[in-house]
Protein 1
Amino acid sequence: MAFTDERNAKSFFVERVITQAQKEGVSVSESERYMLAWSESDPTFTQNPALTRQFENETTDKIFEEKVIGLLKRSFNDDLRRDGASKETYQDAYRVLNQGDHYLLVMIKSALGSKLKKWWFF
């Protein structure tokens, strides 16, 4: 799958997190979904101060990031077990998303960074 823009790449990762959370029975609140999409560079992202405050009242950045990192790792491993070629999809989405400034990149890099680098980039 080729990702043509950051929005599609971000949607791929958000969908992977949400799907994995559903599989595991882990709740993802409206404010957490908002934070998964949070971006400085996505022109389609709309800042919502109410959701930001709700997020701050519900959890901390550290707890949220740890939750998402775990979900991303397990999603990646599950997808890889089902289809070894899925690694290329993750790599392509990461490459495209990494062109912008997205909060989700912090968690992707922590969860999968070394697994998504192409060997020739070392």
Protein 2
Amino acid sequence: MARKLSGRLVIATHNPGKLAELRALLAVYGITAESAGERGLAEPEETGTTFRENARIKALAAARAAGLPAFADDSGLAVEALSGAPGIHSARWAGPDKDFMQAMQRVEQELQQAGGRDRRASFVAALCLAWPDGHVEEFEGRVDGALVWPPRGEEGFGYDPMFLPDGFDETFGEMSAEQKHGLPPRGQGLSHRARAFLKLAEACLERQ
């Protein structure tokens, strides 16, 4: 039986785009959330080799530092022709200035070097909900699609403008926040993070 969550938690992120997305998802369940950045918590070194391991590292560090349940995600773009890269290094490809246009250009350049024909990719998200006593609940979600060039749209963040999910004509960068990660019945729970969150919500949250 999964442990239930109520009340307050810390979202273990310093990324404002990710914070806004996760805060909106949690609000439906009456959860009040503040970020690790807002609490001045240090970012732990992400030494894991998988999305799941890095999400756990971040969530446990925030939970123990804040003395509250903490919620973390680790997510990224996995490109088939690049053997799953950038994967857990998705944010690092954007450099210290978080320049995702630079990161998207690098993906495209490496795709061309790999032949440019196989443009299949997936967004993957691992979510971890951790308590100060070390208990964790973990969930994963993914969405498959293909990469387009040039990037399209100015919505979302990260690699969204170059990712076209299967079955859609718009990239994540062209979709509204509601289209991309809105939960049923208002949205389709389309994004990788929304899909993982729906699993977490079913196990650990109660809708208000």
Protein 3
Amino acid sequence: MIKVKVYRNSDFRICGFKISGHAGYAESGSDIVCAAVSMLVINTINAIEKFTDEKINNSADEENGGHIKCTLPLIKEGKHNHDAELLLEAMLYGLTNIENEYSCYIKINDEGGRV
């Protein structure tokens, strides 16, 4: 199962996320759930880097269960970055749509946890 943890700052703005695990929907290379999640997450990180001034701290490990963690220090500190926040909310919207359709393979934890 893919587990998504959404981190929010004191203003409840998304300031990071961690995604770990594998969907297990199908064999590697044919898993549409893993592919959809990976595409959304990687595209979001790339879009934030290309189209905003937001600094990103991220780490990834495809081995050992697979995970990617991304934090945005400026948003965490309460500094507003509308474009980065919009991209993160769009990513979460897409992940939520995947969860609604494939809830046996992805679980989102968005309870306002802090980094």
Protein 4
Amino acid sequence: MLNDEILRRKEVEKKLVEAKEEAEKASLAKSEFLSIISHEIRTPLNAVIGMGHLLLKNNPRPDQVDNLETLKTSSDNLLVLINDILDFNKIEAGKLDLEIAPFNIKKLIKDIVSANKNGANERENRMALVIDEKVPDYFMGDALRIGQVFNNLVSNAVKFTHRGFISVRIDLQKLKPGSALLHISVHDTGVGIAKENLENIFTPFMQASTSITRQYGGTGLGLAISRRILGLFNSDVMVDSELGKGSKFHFLIELKTVNADEIHLLENDIAGFDLKNKRLLLVEDTLFNVLYATQLLEGWNATVDVAENGQIAVDMTQHTDYDIVLMDLQMPVMDGYTATLKIRGFNQKVPIIALTAAATSDVRDKVLDSGMQDYIVKPFNPSELILKLKKYLN
């Protein structure tokens, strides 16, 4: 009888090990699938967003501006959708990391409200932004993630309000030595949420009801991701709502303040940025992305050489001294990781920044392990590229 019990336990343990291995395989397959999908979608989307930016910048005719603004808004919305799906995958895997850097919170919030103005106007909504004058300008934190939470709340308020009013506020709750406690709130007069559905809205892929999905669209991930991101800041999103009378979403967040010596790091004015006398190597195999990046860089007076794969990049860096290399990762003949390892064999100094359409959590580690200094995820906006270039060229 004892032997039978031991055999049964061993059989159960064996099945548990097999189930664990199957689950790990499935998780790996899902991550690989998302990485491939991310790359395949982001590569053309980078060209769409980039070309839209360049066309708006090149003095379009007045009758073209509205069409280009629509293109920009639609491509930005598509990018938000892709980011939500990928970020949820990172959160599930416990691999969503915060990047701490100085940023201007007032500019961040004003830009997000401004980006949502077109959507608000289309739904005949009025918007008001109130920023407490006692709120400091600069903080240390992850501007991308804080902006993502804020954008989710503002865009939801716009989406679920028609011919109404949206109030956006940032108030100083408490100023401490070296930090500040902020209260951020978004109040709308939209459709509101029934009490029994208040918790559903924070469940991944769930919305208040199926009719909401049909009428307003969306993945049901925005609020779930926002709650997880705020959790990384030891905060949470709170909601007060009544069906038919609107909603108020708000949260408290404590951020480190920035001293005057660190503020100069935030100088990212595109108009004043100049790459005169700088020679850059762009390693990229997609023609549209080459056109976008070279026009952007040459607009800042840089000299730009292009390599269409990693092998050509290795050969070119052996014969030319570049100030910086912008390296795509997935290319024919030789990928960016291999090319970087080969370059590091004879050149340890030249900064190499990855330009990648893969946004999964293991990319950063692989980039740094291969010898690159940093990475930018496509599609990228010009100010993000400027900050990286300034960091490594100075």
